[in-house]
Amino acid sequence: MFGVWVPADQAPKAEVSKLTYYGLYALQHRGQESAGIAVSDGSRIVVFKDMGLVAQVFDESVLNTLRGHIAVGHCRYSTTGSPTWENAQPTFRSSDAGGLALVHNGNLINTPELAARLEPGVLTATTDTEVLTALLATRGDDGPLAAAREVLPATRGAYSLVFMDEGTLYAARDPEGVRPLVLGALQDGGWVVASETAGLDIVGARFVREIEPGEMVAIDGAGVRSERFAEARPKGCLFEYVYLARPDTTIAGRSVQATRVEVGRRLAREHPVEADMVIPTPESGTPAAIGYAEASGIPYGQGLVKNSYVGRTFIQPSQTIRQLGIRLKLNPLREAIEGKRLVVVDDSIVRGNTQRAIVTMLRDAGAAEVHVRISSPPVAWPCFYGIDFATRAELIAGNRSVEEIRDSIGADSLGYISLDELISASHIAKDNLCRACFDGEYPIPVEDAARGKHLLEVT
Ligand code: SF4
């Protein structure tokens, strides 16, 4: 998710649609189903979106048609509603007062309650984002901020938002600050909002600060104006540190890479094993594998080669694609692993399919022993705040012990980092983190969310 505002007289030079394209490129890991950009030239908003990766959706000729001085962009991975064109973002609404384009990261948990505020038949898509867009666009002459002051305090769940009308860029973050959102400044004037600091780096923007939980900002020629719509109750997603965020992103002033390496060190101390080589499941297991090797004294090596052009496996929506993805994605380095006792470090086990395939692959390639070490605690509970882990029954740790999981994936031994050690490595206070997928303690009550990802598609 990315947004940019530059002064109108700099629009031709700044090329906001290209800045947004680059920003989305850096944030592609957060969603790979569809991509879209909306731009405003001060009087009209134009939206272009389609299914596919950023580089598949946009080319030079499309970007050249998206002219203006404000833009918002999004790469989607569906957590509410199906992966369809209608559900791709930005979502757009217009009224007599003007247009509104919005992008959203997270997942609302009171969507039906919010949808009930709308006239029947108003919705054209089946996402929580569409509901929010329709509500924020229902405004008088006071602009979307007035609507946001009324709607956001009644909105529950995870929502980092970036939205725009014809002349102003806005950003808002839920009171729990579940998903990240940062503000940056462009060198030649102008502002950027992005899901992660890596999205600022790619366009040369300087990190200014995080958008605070419960804060919204409006950005235009008058600068950045901030106001609170709710008290902050920080509950940042712990899984961002484990898997979601890029390693070169910083959260609360600390690089995600440093946290992951530290988790690997702690994992080695919690679950030591005699072995000949530590290998990562590339690439999300790499930092923790480096830390494990460092703390254990076991040499680090490469035993699996990743085809970088295949997307992250669990982020893709259907089981058929997911299983094919595992086979396409990794290949063992036979000479490196033959006859060796391996420690294989991965970031998490969700359904267990990936790890089972990896263990089998390594044994077939001649590994003498395969010890699996995981740099997160067992994922035993679904996420209702923007990660599509699906149901508890589909999670391998939902109703199995560690020993049963070890047996299921066929490893010689299996060790997960403890929740306390993971939290300690994050350098964030336990009470300020959402850890619900690990401990089942949901910081935002989730009754309505139990109706599922396709709740607006039920007829
Ligand atoms: S449930 Fe897990 S993945 Fe979801 S927001 Fe909480 S920590 Fe993050």
TrEMBL record:
Domain spans labelled Glutamine amidotransferase type-2: 1-222
Pathway: Purine metabolism; IMP biosynthesis via de novo pathway; N(1)-(5-phospho-D-ribosyl)glycinamide from 5-phospho-alpha-D-ribose 1-diphosphate: step 1/2
Protein EC: 2.4.2.14
Residues involved in [4Fe-4S] cluster binding: C237, C383, C434, C437
Binding site for Mg(2+): S284, D346, D347
Keyword entries, A-Z: 4Fe-4S, Glutamine amidotransferase, Glycosyltransferase, Iron, Iron-sulfur, Magnesium, Metal-binding, Purine biosynthesis, Transferase
Named cofactor requirement(s): Mg(2+); [4Fe-4S] cluster
Function: Catalyzes the formation of phosphoribosylamine from phosphoribosylpyrophosphate (PRPP) and glutamine.
Protein name as annotated: Amidophosphoribosyltransferase
Lineage, uppermost ranks: Bacteria, Bacillati, Actinomycetota, Actinomycetes, Streptosporangiales
Gene name of this polypeptide: purF
